[in-house]
Every structure is written in structure tokens, then in C-alpha cells.
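This part of the workshop introduces the protein records we will be handling. A record pairs a protein's sequence with a compact description of its fold. Comparing a sequence with its C-alpha cells is the quickest way to learn the format. The record below serves as our worked example for the rest of this section:
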Amino acid sequence: MYALVDAVSMYASAEKVFDPAIRNRPVLVLSNNDGCVIAACPIAKRLGLKNFVPYFQIEKQARAVNAVVRSSNYALYADLSSRMMDVCELACSEAHIYSIDECFLKFDFNDAEQNWFAFGEALRRKIWKEVRLPVGVGFGPTPTLAKAANHAAKKVQGFNGVAVLSAAEERNRVLSMMAATDVWGVGKRLGRRFDDMGIKTAQDLASHCPLNIGKQFSVVVENTVRELNGELRLSWHDVRPDKKELYSTRSFGERITEKEQLRYALTMHAQIACKKLRKQNSGTKSVVLFAASSPHDTKGYYKETVFKQFPFATADTRVIVAAVSKAVDKIYKTGVDFYKCGVGLLDLTEQFQSQGDLFSSSPDDTQLMRCLDAINTKFGRNALQFAAVGAEQKFHMKQAFLSPRYTTRWSDIPRIKC
């Protein structure tokens, strides 16, 4: 049996953990630079406030319902996520963290030996007691059915935070109430093709012949159909394979006009991307660097991109930073108000399978990078970083509604007076 534990509106719920005064109010969390709504609590959704819309479009509506607006507080969310995952990992011998708010659990004992509803309720109460995050728990004989059960636990009437899809009758009932695009791994593009075939619901998809679906689409979609019918086809590796490309991009809180500030920003993104690269034990054979103004600027739109290939796969931040330093002269243009920049690592390969170069040796220092990552893991992000990032950065994110970092900053730790 598999279970998927998923926090309800993770970012918005996290904002309520250390601020009980807003627990019964609608809460919205905004994206980088306070641009779009990326999380709305259930109360906000019931009042018509939606995710993934520019904040300025719903600002008046949010004020009218006395909504609480917060800037993204990633340090707080990551810490609360870690605490939630710790509780989940204690619930079984095998757990797989899928994202910041989702965790798969695998159980080896027989269905008949366990009351899954009671187990799910106990796990929800435990997470609420320890972390104060509301979660939904879905159980199924495959990861795909566990994901569908979690959807039912949170969104299908009749379930109260826990759903179990072990019996065929219950499974068919729930799948018939789910759209095909609600199935894990089925996006809008695939959903449109399904719609043309008359596949409207998840049950319609499950009823199709897996082999025929595989021939028309791919073995991945075939496995999805098989999993909807209770046949285990996915492993943890299939659930979250290594990424083939890695990017770090962000718009600026204030426009950049100076070359050095642009250099600092690109170097910062190089650091972030390389850390992600080493985390999945990969190397990159090429890098793309870009910077652009806003398409809405009166001066006209400007964007410049530089592509750099390496003779060997590298995971050394120093190599990427050196490429940034050379590229800035080509990217920068006097008079442009830069709005956004980023670094992309392409042609990723597993480090132990990387091909060397006959005529040049790799300058990578694996031990140095391992030491750098260990220090930043122990003492906090960017505790140790490259001087090329600069001492005075003028491109910090706009975070006008940022809440305190209650668990990761000494000055923000809550004080209780008795």
C-alpha cells in the first residue's frame, strides 16, 4: 500500500502556523517580487480569490474581504516542510519526499491488517500537533492511485481529509468524479488529446486498453493507465527522475543599469544552479546566460543571450562563474534597464558517466565543491559564496509583505511571556 501526504495550500497554511490571529482569515501568498498569487488558503478560495493571477488584478477584491497578503517566505516554508517530512518518515520504514509539500509513504504489511482510515486520521492529527499544518492523506495500491486518493481526500465531497482506494468499487466511484487532467502526469496538452478521444474522466482513461494507449502515446501514459487499475508500474526513480536542464532565473526588485550589478546577479544565479546540479549528482556540458528588459518598457524591449559549451561535463561553480564573467560584456548594453536575468545549465549528464577530453583535463575540484556545499548546508544558504557575487547588491526581491522568519532567524523567534 502507498500513501501520499500533501499539505493543504502549503505556503498559505505555513503563514498561519505562528500567527493564530489570521487562521480564520483568507490568506494569499505572492510570488517573487510580489507579482502573482501563488497560494490561496481554502477560505480565500471560497471567497473567489484564485491562484496564479497577477495581484494587482485582485487587490481591491482582496481588500474588500479583509484578506491577509504575504510575500513568499521560502526560509519558513522549507523549515516547516522539513518538520512535516520528519513526522511522515516516522510513520513507515520507506518514505520519498516528492516536493516541498508532498511525501509518498510505502507500507509492506497487508491491507487486512490495517485500518487505513484510522491510520490516516492519526497521521493528520500527529502532523497538526507537531507542525500545525493541515494535510490530506490518500491511500492506494499504486503511487498513481495514492495521488488520486489524495485528490479525493481534499476535493471530493464525502471525504474529510483521508481517502482509501483499495477496493475496486470505491476506486471506480472516485475516478469517475475526477477529470482526466486531474490524473497524475496528465497535463493540459495531453488532456486535449484525450478529450478528442472521448476520454473525459479518470475512469474513462482507466477503462482504455493500456497497450493501445501506449501505442498512441508513450509507455509512460501506458503505465499511468495500468496504475489506475491497481497494477504497480512506477518506482521512486520513475516518480522523480533527474532533470535534464536546470535554470535559475528571477526578475529584479529594482531595475539594473550598471554592468557590475548585472555581473553580480548572473553570478548569484550560477551559484544557485550549480548547487542544484551537484545535488542530483550531474554535470553540465553547456550553459546559457541571458538578461532582458521588460517588454512593457517605453524604451523598447532588449534581450541578449550567450551560449557556452564545455569540452567536458562540469559541476564546478568556478567554471560557470568564469563563463559569466566573459559573457557579461556581450550581454550588457548601456541605457538598458534590465528587468530579469538567468542562468541555464543544459546537456546534463550523470557525473560518473561523463566523458573526458583527450587533450584537456577537467579543472573541477570535487572536494572543494563538496566542502562548499557542506558549509552552506550547516551554516545556512550563502554562508560561503564567491566574491564575484558582490558585497553590495541592488537587485534584491521586492517583498513588501514578508512575514518574520520564525524558525531560521534568531531575531524572529517568537517570544512567549507567561
Remarks:
- The CA atoms of residues 257 and 336 lie 6 Å apart.
- The mean pLDDT is 89.
- The longest helix spans residues 259-279.
- The chain has two domains: 1-177, 246-389.
